[in-house]
Amino acid sequence: PVSWERACRAIYPTGEFEVVHQIDATLPGGGRMALLGVTVFSTYRQTLKCTLMTLEGFVLFSAEEDNTIRVFRAVPPFDRQAFGQGMIEDLRFLFFYPKDRAFSIGWSKNNEHTCRYDPDGGSLTDVTLLADGNWNVSRFTRSNSLSRSLESRETASGMAGFSKKIRLKHHGWGGYALDLTLVKAGKR
User: Fold this and answer.
1) Could you report the per-residue pLDDT of 75-98, keeping only the tens digit for each?
2) Helix intervals (H) in 78-159
3) Angular region, 68: left φ>0, alpha ψ -120 to 50, beta rest
4) Using CA atoms, how far apart are residues 121 and 18, in angstroms rounded to an integer?
5) What share of the chain is helix, strand, coil (3-state, %, to 5)?
6) Is the pLDDT of residue 5 over 90?
7) 89: closest CA among 125, 116, 58?
8) Spatial contact of 102 and 117, defined as CB atoms under 8 Å apart
9) CB neighbour list of residue 31: distance below 8 Å, 6 or more residues apart
């Protein structure tokens, strides 16, 4: 029999990687922006470095996180502390598997399997494996409101833990959506 928790874990990369995404951002209020994002991370050390830039290569934001967030460059409007913290949280949500073991595993009549995690003793994270090979991840607040979600749109063959297209959405006040297209992913 298939270990569904192992299958849920398989949507996340394991190791040290450098990843480049083209980002089509829908901002609060409906504005749109096209960006490039470069992320270098280690799932072993739980560290990451990130750079957000224009398509022409102008660096808008650059930081690293290793228990503490260190910002190296931040131009307005990317210079707010909340932006840096939110970006790091988005990247952790995208690339790092929930820390605890799944406490609940179930499936639907549509042959979708869900692993539920409670990584910080209050918020819930659901990893749902869809019948078509794609997946969704949903994070809920302590009050059961959806706070963040990921939707895999096209899995990347030969690259465990990466999808060619992902929609990352922050729900609630100041919500935004990021449509990520994988440009490059490689081990470091």
Assistant:
1) 998 999 889 999 999 999 999 988
2) 81-95
3) beta
4) 31
5) 10, 50, 40
6) no
7) 125
8) yes
9) none
